[in-house]
Amino acid sequence: MKHNYHFLSFSLLCLFLLLGLSERVQATHIVGGELELQYLRNQGSANYRINLNLYFDELNGNPGAEDPTTNVYVFRKSDNRLMGIVTLPLVNRQAVSYSNPDCSISSLSTRLIRYSSDVSINTGAFNDPQGYYMVWERCCRNGTINNIQNPGAAGSVFYLEFPALVQNNNLFVNSSPVFRPLKGDYICINKPFTFDFGAADPDGDSLSYKLVTPYNGYSTSQLPSPPATASSAYPEVRWASGINLTQVIPGPRPLRVDAQSGLLTVTASQTGLYVFSVEVSEHRKINGRYQRIGLVRRDFQFKVIDCPVNNPPKLMMRQKGANSFYTEGSLVTLSKTDSKCVDLFITDRDANQRVRILPLTGNNQNMVITPQEVLIRNPGDTVKAQICFEPCAAPNGRTVTISLLAVDEGCPQGLEDTLRIRLQMEADPNLPPDVQTDLPDNKATVKVGQALAFNVTGTDPEKGFVSLEAVGRGFTLAQAGMTFAPVSGTATVTQKFQWTPQCSQVRNQEYVIDFIVTDTYCDLKQRDTVTVRLTAIPETNNKPSVRTTLTNPLIEMVLSVDGQQTPLVEFDAIASDTDPDLLKLALQGLGFDWKAMGMQFEDKSGRGPLTSPFSWKPGCAVLNGQPEATFVLDFLTEDNSCLPDRYDTTRVTLVVKDSPANYDIAIPNVFTPNNDGKNDVFSIPALPADNCAEQFRKIEIYNRWGRVVYSSTNRDFVWDGTGYSSGQYFYLIDYSKRQYKGQITLIRQ
After folding, report:
1. Residue 303: closest CA among 138, 57, 125, 535
2. Which of 219, 263, 608, 639 could lock 258 by a disulfide, CB 3.0 to 4.6 Å apart?
3. In 3-state terms, the chain is what percent helix, strand and coil (to 5)?
4. How far lies 643's CA from each of 87, 502, 534, 540, 646, in Å?
5. CA nearest 357: which of 422, 419, 423?
6. How far apart are CA 10 and CA 273, in angstroms?
7. Residues of the chain above pLDDT 90, percent
8. Do 615 and 602 contact (CB within 8 A), yes or no?
9. pLDDT score for 140
10. What is the pLDDT of residues 730-744, one digit of tens each?
C-alpha cells in the first residue's frame, strides 16, 4: 500500500483528528516500541517505507485498543513546523518469543503489532539542514511499572530524527538504524543478565547507544491519542523515588548499555517491572569528520522476578595420568608422544540439568569436544567428557590459551562457568613443498602467433593444503597476454600456463615468471619457487606489395562545363604478399581529405590478394578557384608481422586542369534585318566557351534612352530587331568575371 504525505492547514488537521477520537479506545499496557524510516530503491513511485513497531502486553492489555490504522506526524526541527501526516495500516501481529521457549512464564507475554506503509515523499521539500523528526504518541503504559510515577496514566512517545533528504542539491540517501528483533525474556533477581539491544544500519553508518529517560508526551488517560504536538523537548516520564538514569533497574550492577554494541547488562536486586529507553544515534563522515545525522529511540520494559534457585555448573580439566585437576594459569605441555586429548569434568548442584560445553577460542576447528552436551541426573554428579587438540591448536610450539564455556539450561538464561587452559604442544616437522614444470629447461623462445602451453605442479610431501600462483617480474601476466589461474587444493595441484605472443609482446628482454607453491600448515607458510624465462620473437617475413592497374601513375584531367562530359578516372588498387599474412589496404591523401574531395575507395583487410576499386569524377569545386590542382594519393599496405619491413606504398598523382578559353572575340557592330540572308540578325557564335573560371550569364541590349529592348541568358542568342526602328543600340555581355560592352547599329533598308 502506498500513501503520500498530506500537507494540511492546522485547522483542518485538528478537525480531522477530533472527529476520530470518539472511536478510539485507551491503549493500556503499552510495553514499548520504535519507529523506522527506510529508503527504498527501485520501488516505483514509493521511495520510503515507514514502520511503527508497538509492543503490547498480551495478558493485561485492552484488545479493543488495537487500532486498524495509526498516524505518524512529521515535523521540521528548526521551527517545529508540521510537514505532514502518514496514516499507517496494521500489517502484522505476532507473539514475541523467548530466547529459550522452555523458560516462558504465565505472567509475561508480549505481542508485536506492526504498522507500515510505503510512501512517496517530495524530497525537495525536505532540505532544511537542521533535519526533521517524526513522532507517535499514545497512552497508557502498564500500571504495574515500578520505576516511574503514576505509570497507568503515563504516555508513550516513539521518536525518530532524520536528516535533510536533499543536501547540496543532491538526494541524501539514508535509512534509520533498525533495532534487532526483541525477545520476551525476564530477569532473575541477583543473577547477571545480558540482552542484545543493538541495531543494524542499512547504510553502514557508525552507531552509538545510550540510556535516556523515556518520553511521556502530551497524551493522558482522558485523551489517549491526541494530535501530535511539535516540541523541541517532549515531557519525560517522572522517575520513582530513588530511580534515575544511573539506577533505572537498581541492583549491584544497575542497567547499563554498551555505547558501541548496544548490549544491555544488569544484575537486579529488586523484583518488579521496569521501563527504560535506549537511544541509538547514527554518524556519517561528511567533509572529513563524523557528524550525527539521525537517531531513534526504543522504549521497552523488563520484568524482574524471584526465580527458582539455579546453581551454575562447574567445568574442570585433568590430563591423562594426572592426579589432580588443572589449575588455571598453569601450563599444559604435550610432547609428540603424549596423547593430544585431555579429560573434562562437569558438575552441577542442580539435578536434571543439561550442560553444553562450547569452545570460545576463535579457531574452533582445531579441537573436538566429545560429547558436547552432558546430563547431570543427580545433584552434585560429575560427568566426564573429552577434548582432543589438533596440531594447529597450538602451532609451532607456541603457547596459546584455550577458552571453554560450560552453560546449563537455567532460565531465563543459562548460567555458565569458564575454563581457560594454557597449552603448549611440541611442534611437528613441516617439510617444504615442491613446484615443477614440464617445460624443458624452464625456458622457451616463442614466435609471434605460435601457442606455448605447459603444466605447473605444486606438491606437499605431507599431503597438506597447498596453493599455486604465478607472478611476473616487472609485469602482470594479463599485460603480456599470458594465462595462468591460481589454484589450491590438498597434497598436489596442477595448472596449465598458456601464451600466444602477439607483436606487442616482442621486446628486447625476456619475460621472467616465478611459479610459487605455498604450503599452509597451521599459521606457518612455507614456499617453493620455480622460475621460467620466455622470449617472444617475430616470424620470418616477406615484404608485402601494393600496386594499381594504371599504366601511368600520373593522370591529367581537363574539366569542361560547356556541354562536354566531365572526366572520370577509374582503376584498382591491389595488395598482395607471398606469405599467408593478414593484410591491410588503405588510401591516404597527401595533405588533403580524399573523402571530402568525392573520391570513392574502400579500405580492406584480410588475406591477400586484396583488391579495391578507386573512382573519381572531379568537378570545378576541386580547383578552389585555381586553374590547376594536383592531388597525390598513397595506396598503403601492411601485413601483420612484427618486423619493420611490413609496409609498402604506391603513389598516384592526379592533375586536374580548367579548360582553356579565348576571351579575344570579334563582335559585329551592324546588322540589316531585310531577309537577304546576310547580317539579318545580331548574334555572336564565337563567344568564349564556359569553363570553371568563367561562365556566360546573360546579354542585354539597350536603346539610346537606356531601356532594355532585348535580354537573354542563352549564349546562342539571336536578336532580329523585330519591332524596333533603325538606329544605334548598346549591348552588355556579362560573364562571371568580365563584361563586354559596345554599340550595334540596326539598319532597315
Report:
1. 57
2. 263
3. 5, 50, 45
4. 78, 12, 19, 8, 6
5. 419
6. 39
7. 61
8. no
9. 87
10. 999 999 889 999 999
